[in-house]
Amino acid sequence: MWGNRGYNVPPLVTVVVPTCNRPLLLRRALYSLLLQIDPPSFEIVVADGCPSPKTKAVVEDIARHVEKRGAEITYVARKTRGPSQTKNLGLEHARGKLIGILDDDNILLPYALTLATRVIDETGANIVVGYTVSTLTYSTKVFGVSDSPLQLLRYEDYLCGRVGGEFWGLINYSAISNNDLKFFPHSLFAAEKILYVQQWRMLKKVVYMHVPLELYEERTSSVTRPDSKGALNPRRFALIALDYINYLKFLGSELKNARCYDQLCTILRRLYTLTKLLGVREGASTALHLMLHEKCYRSIPLSLISSNLKIKTFLTRVQSILQMYKSVKKAKNIKENLTVTKIIHMSKKCYMDCKNNNIVTLIKCVNMCMKKQGIKAP
To answer: Under a CB-based contact definition with an 8 Å cutoff, are residues 110 and 190 in contact?
Structure first.
């Protein structure tokens, strides 16, 4: 642990940064935390799930600048079996009342911690989130929100998929009485949505502020994009299918109780398609049986239940890949004119120009300023 405050004095905020063999990206993420404007007392916990000397060297180098910024940084390393376990490693060492998670390939905008903690103070919210922006397209995937500066989000809307996308925010961990809801399920590859849904249900008061808080790295080579080489990787299909199965396992009864029939049917349709693509007949037939049982068959395209399902699905996917290549070309043109460094600089200027307003006007002012610079709001 490095920093300028005594270890017995817990900070207000802990930012957990999970990482695995990406020292260059990690350095950029950590610098974004050190560039925070007038931040509350905070600590950085770097959780290294693939321990390496290069990663530790980056943290030690950043630690030299931590004391000047009034923060602390802790490095913990242990071989883990996936993102969820790496995040849990960091959460085990978190001491702050409010906790946020920053992936090592993402960047926190300079006003994020200040705005988020101020909204919590003034609204009494247990969770505060803002939208995130892709570094490839400079747009967001958040949906279901209005352009009101501050708004309450309902747990049922998040559960049912009426509100969603890429958010970043802080969670009041001191208000979570159930210790199981402080950590991601260990058995899952990516369990963010499952844990967040359960936390939203318990903490109830979730406030969304209509302003960008984070840049998330979206590369053309990422397996999460349908135009990448890894998009048709069977392992990726298997992991996604496993996520859907676990989502139903943990939240299936809640989806039924909240009458989230559209969301339930969507998950089952996707699971059916994935299991057929993987050639897992038992899984596909089980998913189809569930769909019929839940009366989702009305919304299933007939082509999915044909003997040529695999061929037709791949043809559809190839068409979507061709469409995506067109959008990637546009995105590259945007990126030439709007760099990450420029966004960080202009976001700092936007905040400084707006900071003397009340919280509602401040959020509205910053968001409008960022939109003028090319950031696309939800």
So the answer is: no
Distance of alpha carbon 232 from alpha carbon 320, whole angstroms: 12
Domain range annotation of the chain: 13-218+342-373, 229-321
Cβ atoms of 137 and 218 closer than 8 Å: yes
Amino acid at 21: N
pLDDT band at residue 102, thresholds of 50, 70 and 90?
very high
Pairing of strands 13-19, 98-101: parallel
Nearest to 42 by CA among 16, 75, 76: 16
Evaluate whether 31 touches 107 at the Cβ level (below 8 Å).
no
Query: Which of 321, 270, 318, 276 has its CA nearest to residue 296?
Result: 270
Closest CA to 27 of 69, 68, 67, 55: 55
Q: Residue 357 is encoded by which pair of tokens?
A: 């307003």
Whole-number Å distance between alpha carbons of 367 and 98: 24
Q: Which residue type does 266 have?
A: T
Identify the CA nearest to 44 among candidates 67, 78, 21, 20.
Answer: 67
Q: Do 11 and 100 contact (CB within 8 A), yes or no? A: no
Neighbours of 125 (CB within 10 A): 25
User: 129-133, 276-280, 362-366: which range is least confident on average?
Assistant: 276-280
Q: Give per-residue pLDDT as tens, 251-297.
A: 877 887 888 877 877 777 777 777 666 665 555 556 566 655 656 65
Residue 167 has pLDDT above 80, yes or no: yes
Indicate the fold that domain 13-218+342-373 takes in CATH.
Answer: Spore Coat Polysaccharide Biosynthesis Protein SpsA; Chain A (3.90.550)
Integer Cα distance of 323 and 348 in angstroms: 35
Say how many C-beta atoms besides its own lie within 10 A of residue 356's C-beta: 9
Listed ranges 112-126, 156-170, 194-208, 344-358; the one with the highest mean pLDDT: 112-126
Tens of pLDDT, residues 215-226: 987 765 554 555
**Are 362 and 355 within 8 A, CB to CB?**
yes
What is d(CA 356, CA 368) in angstroms, rounded to the nearest whole number?
A: 16
Could you tell me which residues come within 8 angstroms of residue 163 by beta carbon, excluding any fewer than 6 positions away?
143, 144, 145, 153, 154, 157
